[in-house]
Specification:
The chain has a domain of about 140 residues: Rossmann fold (3-Layer(aba) Sandwich), CATH 3.40.50.720. About 50% of the residues lie in helices and about 15% in strands. The protein contains 21 helices and 13 strands. A 6-stranded parallel sheet has the order 3-2-1-4-5-6. Strands 7, 8, 9 and 10 form a 4-stranded antiparallel sheet that branches. It has a 3-stranded antiparallel sheet with strand order 11-12-13. The longest helix has 25 residues.
Length: about 475
């Protein structure tokens, strides 16, 4: 089956879709795309986002066709790339999950801990259903997974479908960019040796023109502070690891601090984002109805800037997103890193004959020696139109190996729970996950999560192993 010059976006009503369309429009000729088809179960929301995307394309002076097909089948049919950016249950489900985690004494977060498991269990069945449609309607397409928890969902897709799947996340490239800034070196001259799982990765070595520079960063408290969007890690922690963790390791290394800040503020990031999103959406509906799409896009841009400016501030310092304004962060559309830059980089690489190197989520093969070949890992890969080749990383450092192995087993159990509809496997996943790791707590959490969302988690049944 031949593909067309189309990118299909599942979950096209995402607040970040206009960023994605901006990137595609900007590099339209390089990736050979004429149409972006947006599909979302929330038809009203995707209509609003489509209007914003058309305004993005207009401002760039591009002739990019934005469509909103009525069915997922029509959206993905003959697509060259299918980008999955789902949020099953919407932002309300995220806020509810995080509130339950906080009630039980754990930091609420959408991709790690109890909230991450709930999101995975809610999302895996839907992702696999969409994958079947893509297999029927666009079997030659690349399925680019941006849906969180990205590594776990990519693992489920690679294990249970025959699609060409690649998982992407902008977290590694963001830390690489910050490392280059700290060293006052051009990004292309800095090589960051990175390995791990999605939202569980470390930079173990930094070389510039062949010279090792990681110790230069680790010896400076000021340099370490500049690596992150907030003051997340004690410099002594990084020195003890002799590695630079990505920001989501905060929920493993400083779980009590994250919980204390959420508890003290009486909120979670999910609850604040839901409120912000609801406000800007209602205002944009009114602006678009009045024919003022330009004002709606300006407002949406300010909303994205406010979210970015407040990133990790609540968990690290108990500061609310409502304490920040758009002026606290640069324009996300023109940022050097981010959601749309990562998606664009991968599509450009997959369209090119010469291999490009970037970090993505793919089956391990023989990259990390400590994991099985079929385990999805987040490692540097060479990507071209010929395919994806994970580069050899070798053995993980002893100080991080145990955590990676535990979290990978948690992912396996979570996928088994979703595929088999087994609540006991989900409970065992929480038992294995280092953030929880307690039998009684895992039972209480799973029962609370399932009872809170019978529509999306009611398929999980309790039975003896």
């Amino acid at each position: 089956m031949n593909t067309t010059k189309k990118v299909a976006v599942l979950g096209g009503g995402s607040a970040r879709t206009p960023l994605l369309v901006y990137g595609i429009a900007e590099a339209q000729q390089r990736i050979g795309v004429e149409e972006v088809a947006l599909y979302d179960v929330d038809r009203n929301r995707v209509g609003v986002i489509a209007a914003l995307c058309n305004e993005v394309s207009r401002r760039l002076g591009r002739d990019l066709k934005i469509t909103v097909p009525p069915t997922a089948e029509e959206a993905v049919a003959y697509a060259r790339y299918v980008i999955s950016s789902l949020r099953v249950g919407g932002s309300a489900a995220r806020a509810r999950d995080e509130a339950i985690a906080r009630k039980h004494g754990y930091a609420g977060q959408e991709t790690t801990g109890p909230g991450g498991l709930a999101m995975a269990l809610r999302t895996i069945p839907v992702s696999l259903q969409y994958a079947k449609l893509v297999k029927q309607c666009a079997p030659d397409a690349w399925f680019i997974n941006f849906t969180n928890p990205a590594g776990l969902i990519t693992q489920a897709l690679t294990s249970h479908t025959g699609l060409r799947v690649i998982g992407i996340c902008d977290t590694p490239t963001e830390i690489f960019h910050r490392i280059a800034e700290v060293l006052h070196e051009p990004r292309e001259q800095v090589t960051c040796h990175y390995a791990g799982l999605n939202h569980l990765g470390w930079v173990h070595s930094v070389t510039v023109r062949g010279e090792q520079r990681i110790d230069e960063i680790l010896k400076s408290d000021a340099a370490i502070a500049r690596l992150y969007p907030s003051d997340l890690f004690a410099p002594a922690l990084l020195r003890s690891l002799r590695a630079i963790p990505t920001e989501y390791l905060f929920f493993y290394y400083s779980q009590r601090r994250a919980f204390a800040n959420q508890h003290g503020s009486g909120a979670t990031r999910g609850a604040e984002v839901e409120k912000l999103d609801r406000q800007v959406y209602a205002q944009n509906v009114a602006s678009i109805a009045a024919g003022d799409v330009a004002a709606a896009l300006d407002r949406h841009t300010a909303y994205l800037m406010q979210r970015s400016a407040s990133y990790f501030r609540l968990e690290s310092h108990g500061e609310s997103a409502f304490d920040y304004t758009a002026s606290d962060f640069p324009d996300p559309f023109r940022a050097e890193t981010g959601y749309h830059r990562m998606a664009l980089e991968v599509m450009i690489a997959l369209s090119a004959s010469t291999p490009m190197r970037t970090v993505v989520n793919v089956p391990n093969q023989n990259s990390i020696f400590d994991l099985d070949p079929e385990d999805v890992v987040e490692v540097p890969c060479e990507i071209s139109s010929s395919g994806i080749k994970p580069l050899t990383v070798g053995k993980l450092p002893p100080k991080v190996r145990g955590l990676v192995l535990s979290v990978k087993e948690y992912e396996r159990l979570a996928i088994r729970a979703a595929v088999e509809g087994c609540a006991e496997a989900a409970r065992t996943a929480l038992l294995v996950l280092p953030i929880v790791g307690q039998w009684e707590a895992s039972d209480e959490l799973m029962r609370a999560l399932i009872e809170s969302d019978p529509e999306h988690l009611g398929y999980l049944s309790w039975r003896r192993n």
